Amino acid sequence: MVQPSFPVVTESDAQLPLYLTSIGHWEDQERTVRPEGFPDYQWLQAIDGTGELAVGGVTQLVKPGQGFFLNSNEPHAYRPLTHPWGVHWIAFNGSLMPSLMRQAGMERSGVYSLSDPESIILHMKTIYAMSLTGRPFLGMECSKLLYAFLLDLVSKVRMNAPSAAHNSLKLQPVIQFIEENCHRAMTIGELSGCIGVSPQYLCQLFKSTFKMRPMEYVNRERINKSKELMFHDPSLKLQDIAVRVGFDSPSYFSSVFRKIEGVSPEHFRSFGYSP
Q1: Would you say the C-alpha torsion 140, 27, 106, 38 has a positive or negative sign?
Q2: pTM above 0.70, yes or no
Q3: Rounded CA gap, 25 and 42, in Å?
Q4: SS3 150
Q5: Which of 113, 142, 160 is the last residue of a domain?
Q6: pLDDT per residue over 67-78, tens digit each?
């Protein structure tokens, strides 16, 4: 057994978007039954042996390389089916969790397969080591590592899904076309023609892969290009930048910029990109 870590969560730590509550590693995980659930979110990563998770009225096998996510306060139970059942575990909380898990498609507790479980285990080992240091602002340091861990977990779970990986690969010609042509007007027909599908199907692919419509993606690419121009040539007028990145009017450029960035282009430039 590896000694688990339970870092002190201060009042300021609990205000962070993400914060660590406990972390550890059982070389042979025992049977655990929680009729009232657990107060924090959890991720348990199986490294050897086979176990079983019961949650939400469903029982699932947990094989090596798989992990399972548990929502806070949800009744659950898990147990080994073979010995030893080695498991890394981490518990965490924070206001960011619901939206982050929703984006990952992991709103429900259950078992998930990963495209690269070793990288997730490395994250967990790094967080565990940090949690034992007792260094100043430990909560913030663990929060930063936890955020990186969860982002990586999200990507490894999503990319392991055959449909997600296939869609991402299929859309690469469209993404490249957008990057090369966002300085001019583009139609949904041009984009769908890059991969020989209908505009309606292209919209489905973008929504399932990026959670946005194709032209929303185009506008985000244009805004990114506009920020690059502000940085590299501070003397450029905003109306000239709007034209260079494919907007037909400065007012529409400003409207889209504010919607995406939360500030106007003038304000963004004033943050330090003006001469």
Answers
A1: negative
A2: no
A3: 13
A4: helix
A5: 160
A6: 999 999 999 999
